[in-house]
Amino acid sequence: MKVLVTGADGFVGSHLVRSLGKEHDVIALDYVNPPPRNIPKGSVYFNLDLSATSLESLTGISMPDVIIHAATCSIDAISHNPRLEQVNISAMLNVLEYCKVNDVRLIFTSSCSVYGDGVLHTEMDPLYPLSLYSAGKEACEEYLKFYYRLYGLQQATILRLSNVYGDTTDITNKVYLGKKDVVRVFMEKALKGESLPLVGGTQTRDYTFIDDVVETVRKAMSLRGLDVFNVATGVETSVSALAELIGEVLGLKVKTHSIPDRLIDNVQRRSMDISKMRSLWEPKYSLKEGLKEYAGRMQP
Questions:
Q1: pLDDT tens string for the chain (300 positions)?
Q2: Separation CA 228–CA 285 (nearest Å)
Q3: 50 with 34: CB under 8 angstroms?
Q4: Where do the domains of the chain lie, and which CATH numbers do they carry?
Q5: Of these residues, 31, 133, 285, 294, which one is catalytic?
Q6: What 3-state class would DSSP assign to 87?
């Protein structure tokens, strides 16, 4: 199968390129300050601002069977410059137009942040985004549903990813501001013997290991029609418990210090119901197991 991955030099995208490339013909696309740093050497790669340029400009390649649209400006980038949300929207519309014209299937990596606050969200729950980034993800989901209904896309799969961790990518070549998730921040600081920054510490999240996310996408590639799935573990873990667990996994006594609340996506509790996804996929990694695997990848 020929697969086009957008955001291919990013965290989720680079793992998809590396894994799917073992069994599929993968085209990698991103917009970075060359060269890409996180995808395997020898990959078919295009450096393209997807928000400003049509995918029709890609020449010399055969048509992909499916696009996995993982490209996005991060919540940090958009909070610094709200106009960057237009990049996410324009990129989505360009991808959708390409899929419509060329009858290409589409998998979109959305975010659990579209739900706002609450626990064990189901795919049928009302959406209540608490950041411009999250509102943009909701908008992109609606564009995808619209194109599916009006133009009859073969596949329109929305995967709402929940706090994905396991990131070891280099983000210094990003055209738009990159972002390190809380697990990466904690892991890097703990390995350096530095204090971990806690916002309160009682907030909860549903942490999902990157290898589980990749497997979910792999399973979703067999789908047809319109689907929305939560991709998570269904387990709620506080940030303070996360810090302790990282210390346990590393065999270190970690220190913490308090920092002010964020103004964006300031959610107190969050976890996902994954009953719907279980028919297709089961998470392999508990948080402790995933952190052990991640620690091994972070340490030389």
A1: 999 999 999 999 999 999 999 999 999 999 999 899 999 999 999 999 999 999 999 888 889 999 999 999 999 999 999 999 999 999 999 999 999 999 999 999 999 999 999 999 999 999 999 999 999 999 999 999 999 999 999 999 999 999 999 999 999 999 998 899 999 999 999 999 999 998 887 899 999 999 999 999 999 999 999 999 999 999 999 999 999 999 999 999 999 998 877 766 778 999 999 999 998 999 999 999 999 999 999 986
A2: 22
A3: no
A4: 2-164+208-231 (3.40.50.720), 179-205+235-271+285-298 (3.90.25.10)
A5: 133
A6: helix
Tokens read off for 90: 């324009």
Tell me the C-alpha distance between 147 and 243, whole Å. 42
- The model carries a pTM of 0.96
- Active-site annotation holds for 143: no
Both tokens of 149, joined, read 């209904």
Strands 208-209 and 256-258: unpaired
Determine the distance from the C-alpha atom of residue 237 to the mean position of all C-alpha atoms in its chain, rounded to a whole number.
Answer: 19
Contact yes or no for 239/202 (Cβ under 8 A): yes
